[in-house]
């Protein structure tokens, strides 16, 4: 009996010693100095070096492509700007030409009453027994004057009887009974001739319209 008790006591002490030893080992492991390992930078492989070079080259190529696109866009803008300027120049030249054509319009318009007087004088001479030489002289002056006007782009607006009335060309002074049914609403007489200056109406023809 005493022997068994002694054995149990020995076993208990041995367990205590083992636990104490384990606790000591844990404490030593916990307080053990940490070993610092030196980190070495990896050396890139040849494939990685080549890939990096290709990526760099591609980036540069992309920049060149972008610059080329920008240059093309600027060139297109320049072409458009030049075309706009050329159109502006042509339009300005056209307007200048039209301005020069109309510059003497008022002067020519003021001369037209003289033409009217010549025409009236010729009509009177035809109805009298005046000398043919007088008539011939007036006709020569009239023709010369008309040639001068024609030189500057003036030409008469013809309105023979039966012409359709056109408000863009004619000014109706009055209405009169038409001598024929087909002349109703049409010009039956011209009181004052109209004239063009180049392709524009300088003076409307004053006419009588049949009713």
From TrEMBL:
GO molecular function, one term: protein-folding chaperone binding
Biased composition (Basic and acidic residues): 1-10, 23-32
Superkingdom, natural source: Bacteria
GO cellular component: cytoplasm
Subcellular location: Cytoplasm
InterPro entries on file: GrpE, GrpE_CC, GrpE_head
Region: Disordered, residue numbers: 1-58
Any Gene Ontology biological process: protein folding
Chief localisation class: cytoplasm
Keyword vocabulary terms for this entry: Chaperone, Cytoplasm, Stress response
Pfam families: GrpE
Subunit structure: Homodimer.
PANTHER family to which the protein is assigned, alphabetical: GRPE PROTEIN, GRPE PROTEIN HOMOLOG, MITOCHONDRIAL
Annotated family: Belongs to the GrpE family.
Function recorded in the entry: Participates actively in the response to hyperosmotic and heat shock by preventing the aggregation of stress-denatured proteins, in association with DnaK and GrpE. It is the nucleotide exchange factor for DnaK and may function as a thermosensor. Unfolded proteins bind initially to DnaJ; upon interaction with the DnaJ-bound protein, DnaK hydrolyzes its bound ATP, resulting in the formation of a stable complex. GrpE releases ADP from DnaK; ATP binding to DnaK triggers the release of the substrate protein, thus completing the reaction cycle.
Protein name in UniProt: Protein GrpE
Protein species of origin: Thermonema lapsum
């Amino acid at each position: 009996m005493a022997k068994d008790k002694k054995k149990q006591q020995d076993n208990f002490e041995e367990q205590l010693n083992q636990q104490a030893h384990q606790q000591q080992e844990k404490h030593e492991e916990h307080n053990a100095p940490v070993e610092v390992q030196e980190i070495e930078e990896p050396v890139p492989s040849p494939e990685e070096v080549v890939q990096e070079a290709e990526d760099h080259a591609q980036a540069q190529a992309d920049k060149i492509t972008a610059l080329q696109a920008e240059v093309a866009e600027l060139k297109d803008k320049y072409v458009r700007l030049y075309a706009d300027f050329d159109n502006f120049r042509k339009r300005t030249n056209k307007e200048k030409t039209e301005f020069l054509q109309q510059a003497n319009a008022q002067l020519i318009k003021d001369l037209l009453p003289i033409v009217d007087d010549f025409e009236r004088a010729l009509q009177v001479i035809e109805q009298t027994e005046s000398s043919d030489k007088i008539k011939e002289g007036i006709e020569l002056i009239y023709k010369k004057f008309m040639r001068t006007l024609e030189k500057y782009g003036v030409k008469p607006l013809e309105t023979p009887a039966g012409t359709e009335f056109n408000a863009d060309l004619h000014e109706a002074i009055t209405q009169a009974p038409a001598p024929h049914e087909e002349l109703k609403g049409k010009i039956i007489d011209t009181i004052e001739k109209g004239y063009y200056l180049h392709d524009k109406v300088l003076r409307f023809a004053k006419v009588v319209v049949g009713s």
